[in-house]
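Project standup — Tuesday

K.O.: blocked on the structure for the chain from last sprint. Re-posting the sequence here as requested.
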Amino acid sequence: MRSLLCVPGSKPAMLQKAFGTSADQIIIDLEDSVTTLDKPLARENVEEFFRSLKTDKRVSIRLNERSSDEIKADRNLIRALRGGPLTSVILPKIHTLDDVRFWNRYLPREFSFEVQIESAMGLVNTAAIAANSRVHSLAFGPADFMASTGMPSSAPGTPSKEVPRALEYPLSEIVIAAHAYGKLAYDGPYFEFANQVGLSDSANTARALGADGKWAIHPDQISIINELFTPSEEEIETAQRIIDAFDNSSGAANFNGLMIDEASKKVAERLLERATRIHK
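H.V.: unblocked you, prediction finished:
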């Protein structure tokens, strides 16, 4: 998945619109974007919406955090949606492996987990969380992470302008842990949804760190995210030429003035694998 569009379950019109976008995955939110008073209504909306939903997109529901009084009602909703297009649940504010084990016992077994790492405690436990067999992906939650660590902010989920790259370290840790165990890794949203330059910079950084995609909070962000997480024709051509050059050599080879080796070939093969998945 390149783009994951998060929409509040309390807004039926937004739900309908989301499935008409080019987002690869739709995340229906019951947590932060829904007020406490609106959470029962959101669950009712979602259950009604799913009755007629037909889609080829990956569909997820973000539940309320483990400590919330809402989780019993959330579980009842997930049970009611068995057999439909729901593919996974998003688990927010996962701090430890025990949190994952709790949800594993609590929720129906047929839905995989997509885990949000949103705290200092979550970050130091990322590898153990990623190793769990039910975890499908890890996603960075920048706003809550910044609150957890006391990082100064210029906007929600955005580091201060004096240190704009402050979130690269935690995102990199999440990507490394996810890929070490064969899981997907996603960057969190860029909150200044009208700032296309800022979004492009954020998405380019995430891809450079190895992230597989990025959350979106507005439909206008999707095309930029999709473009930046899709290998270009030039990248695909170069990757194939690197593979061919190495395969036709007896070891390390000269490719347009660059020394390439087995590691170079693996990087190129991974890019081609990504391109193949996207264009299926």
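K.O.: great, moving the ticket to review. The chain has two domains: 3-228, 233-278. The first helix runs from residue 12 to 18.
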